[in-house]
Amino acid sequence: MEHEQEIMTVSQVAEYLQISEVTTYKLVQEGRIPGFKIGRHWRVRKEDLREYIGKLKHGENL
Which of 13, 41, 48, 55 would disulfide-bridge 60, Cβ 3.0–4.6 Å? Predict the structure, then answer.
């Protein structure tokens, strides 16, 4: 079984969503994608990202 990372960097989130890092960073900073800071670096829990995608699929305005 492949080990799946639970915590993702902004660049990993961007790659996962297939959008630019700049856009991803903006969405995380604005709180639209739920994230948290460790020092100066943003991180996103994969579970939170899945919930965010689920809300988008159900047409919620985020």
Answer: 55
Q: What is the pLDDT of residue 1?
A: 45
Q: Name the helix (H) or strand (E) containing 59.
A: none
Residues of the chain with pLDDT under 50: 1
Give dist(CA 34, CA 28) in Å, integer.
6
- DSSP H or E segment with residue 23: helix 21-29
Predicted TM-score (pTM) of the model is 0.84
Q: Please answer whether residues 28 and 19 qualify as being in contact, where contact means their C-beta atoms are separated by less than 8 angstroms.
A: no
By C-alpha distance, which of 54, 12, 24, 41 is closest to 33? 24
Token couple for 57: 């699929």
